[in-house]
Amino acid sequence: MEKSKKLKIFIGLFYLIVFSSFLILLFSKFSFEEITSYKFIQLNRDYFFSLKESNLITISVVFFILTIFWVFLLGFASPVALIGGFIFGKWLGTLIVVAGLSAGAAFLYIFGNYYLKDLIKEKFFHKFQDLESKFKRNEFIFFLLYRFVGGIPFQIANLLPILFNISVRNYSIGTFLGMMPQLFIIVSLGNGIEKIINQNEKAPLIKDLIFSFEIYGPILGFVFLVLITTIIKKIFFNKS
């Protein structure tokens, strides 16, 4: 019990230090007004695109590695997907984002199996123990559905399979395939935002954003995905 508390404090402090360092570095170079201005976003969009055009492989590898570290820092998946779509576009962005998040989640899973197993069982087993028999029935298929359905915060979803001793192979492939549909939608939204910024010198009005297919297309896709996952959840994840 004492060990679990110390580990939680360490993880919390580590996350706080890294996040605070990032903010200090960011605001030492830019003011809050600059960061939130439309012009700032435009200029940085041009910077990243010129960088991508001159050295696509390097920036792709850097983004991939940073995504892995982001997952280790227990970051959310959505910001990475939006930025990936903004910089790399719909198709390449999806591939890089899914690969980076999947690799990061797999490394976190391996790390968690060694150092966080007791803590995870203590905190979550009583709540999710009904899933144990379903994972044993067909580990890969059920884990694939688990990733596809979502509904659990990304950070927790990466660690919960520790409860059921999922193989690293099934974890990695299931994460890559299962998360791809939802991440494709978010990446597409990021790509749509980039196109709108590229086409507008001034910040567009809210109504222009809403009625732009680059924005409402991914949103409709997300709504459709939610309906599908709700049906799957009722079929496969109902408590027996």
Your description of this structure?
With 240 residues, the chain is mostly helical. It has helices at residues 2-29, 32-35, 38-54, 56-72, 77-88, 90-115, 117-128, 132-137, 139-149, 154-159, 168-199, 206-210, 213-236. It has one domain (37-236). It is 83% helix and 0% strand. Helix 4 (56-72) runs antiparallel to helix 5 (77-88) and helix 5 packs across helix 11.
Main traits of this protein?
83% helix; 240 residues; single chain; mainly alpha
Give the number of DSSP strands.
0
Structural class: mainly alpha
Terminal Cα span? 31 Å
- Estimate nothing, just give the exact number of structural domains: 1
Mean pLDDT across every amino acid position: 78
Q: Shape from CA axes?
A: globular
Topology as a string of helices (H) and strands (E): HHHHHHHHHHHHH
**Cα gyration radius (Å):** 20 Å
Question: Which range best describes the helical content: under 10%, 10-25%, 25-40%, 40-55%, 55-70% or over 70%?
Answer: over 70%
Q: What are the low-pLDDT stretches, counting only 5+ consecutive residues below 50?
A: none
Largest sheet: none
Question: How much β-strand is present in the residues?
Answer: under 5%
The helix tally amounts to 13
Helices and strands in order, then pairings?
Elements: H1 2-29, H2 32-35, H3 38-54, H4 56-72, H5 77-88, H6 90-115, H7 117-128, H8 132-137, H9 139-149, H10 154-159, H11 168-199, H12 206-210, H13 213-236
